[in-house]
Write a structure and sequence with these properties.
This is Iron complex transport system substrate-binding protein. Pfam families: Peripla_BP_2. There is one protein chain. The protein is of the alpha/beta class. It has two domains: 133 residues, 3-Layer(aba) Sandwich (Rossmann fold), CATH 3.40.50.1980; 189 residues, 3-Layer(aba) Sandwich (Rossmann fold). Helices cover 46% and strands 14% of the residues. The strands form five sheets. It has a four-stranded parallel beta sheet with strand order 4-3-7-8. Strand 3, helix 2 and strand 4 form a beta-alpha-beta unit. Helix 8 runs antiparallel to helix 9. The longest helix is centred in the N-terminal third of the chain and has 28 residues. The N and C termini lie far apart (77 Å).
């Protein structure tokens, strides 16, 4: 009897040891994870080893490409496939899936892509129905959202941390800050009465900047008086618009715009013809590269700042050559060396984005 009991005890002991070993093996088989804090302050647990990236916000596809992980992007939004320079630098994006349209996620298509992490636009994350889709299937997502220069830089830091490119993100933000410093030093003697009054048209002729936004910050840093930031604007679909009557009251010295075709509309419209900027031909297209420079969802904010300041105050920037700035920027951060033809295309802003609907037609 004693012998039998001893055998049972020993057997039970080995079962416990074996079970413990199995638990340890199962734990060791689980992928290592890290915790990051996204733009909303959410603590998110994600895999340490990120291999397949979903960029459901165009800005994040720009940044992931810039940080050297463009070949790992497996999901994008339609807008990313419209950016000609982005596709030239990172042809892999042309083959990426599009599981989201105007913020609405096709969860079946998304699941097929087997992503390790998803970068989600703040506007989409506000939609409970879309977030529920991700959470129902346990998909890891990082909210990327910003309104200001500081928040945009933080967003770049977050993306760098998620994909293991912290040093590259820090290098870009260093350049970003240096651009602001260079402009500030160049314009140190600019008198208040010398400052030009500017209307910044964003995508649509009458869409513009509100106070405290990215556009308000970088235009102010460029030494101009942004006429739209001190008066009430119409808010619609998360965008700010000025009435034409209000624009006439401002009567800006200069109009800058970022959407191809808007300048032709403004200069050719009888309704806009009485404005000082139109009468004097002071209507300028902001360059377009990876994205529209200075756009709320674009990452080339430092270039928009340098271009605006040097274009409107050339006497203060005798040594600044935007052709050379472009060569250095894309060479340094995208390992891409644009030829003279591409540089002129970037500066003109023409033909750099495919028309809306063109990508959908190809699908």
């Amino acid at each position: 009897m004693k012998t039998g009991r001893i055998i049972i005890v020993i057997s039970f002991f080995f079962i416990l040891v074996s079970a413990g070993q199995n638990d340890e093996l199962e734990k060791s088989a689980l992928p290592e994870r890290q915790t990051v804090i996204d733009s909303w302050g959410r603590e998110v647990s994600i895999p340490d080893d990120i291999e397949r990236i979903g960029c459901l916000y165009a800005f994040t596809a720009h940044v992931v490409t810039m940080l050297g992980r463009g070949d790992d992007i497996e999901a994008v939004v339609y807008g990313s496939k419209r950016d000609r320079l982005l596709i030239e630098i990172n042809p892999h994006i042309a083959e990426a899936g599009i599981p989201s349209d105007d913020g609405i996620i096709n969860i079946e298509e998304l699941l097929k892509l087997d992503l390790d992490v998803i970068f989600l636009k703040g506007e989409t994350a506000l939609l409970d129905t879309e977030v529920e889709k991700l959470e129902r299937f346990g998909l890891d997502y990082i909210v990327i959202d910003y309104e200001t220069v500081e928040e945009q830089q933080r967003a770049i830091e977050i993306i760098g941390a998620v994909i293991g490119r912290e040093k590259e993100a820090a290098a870009y933000n260093s350049f970003y800050n240096d651009a602001f410093r260079r402009v500030e030093e160049a314009l140190v003697s600019l008198e208040e009465e010398e400052k030009l009054r500017v209307f910044h048209s964003v995508n649509e002729a009458s869409r513009t900047d509100a106070p405290g936004t990215l556009g308000a910050q970088w235009t102010a840093a460029a030494g101009v008086i942004n006429v739209s930031i001190n008066d009430p604007l119409r808010f619609h679909d998360n965008k700010h618009f000025a009435s034409l009557e209000q624009i006439y009251l401002w009567d800006p010295d200069v109009i800058i715009y970022n959407q191809e075709g808007v300048g032709d509309y403004i200069l050719g419209s009888e309704k806009w013809s009485g404005l000082k900027a139109v009468r004097k031909g002071k209507v300028y297209q902001i360059p377009v590269g990876i994205s529209r420079w200075g756009h709320p969802g674009g990452m080339e904010t430092p270039l928009a700042l340098l271009w605006t300041a040097s274009t409107l105050y050339p006497a203060y920037f005798p040594d600044l050559d935007m052709h050379e700035e472009i060569r250095k920027f894309y060479g340094t951060f995208f390992d891409y060396r644009p030829d003279d033809v591409m540089i002129e295309s970037i500066l003109s802003g023409k033909g750099m984005r495919m028309p809306k609907g063109a990508v959908r037609a190809e699908e």
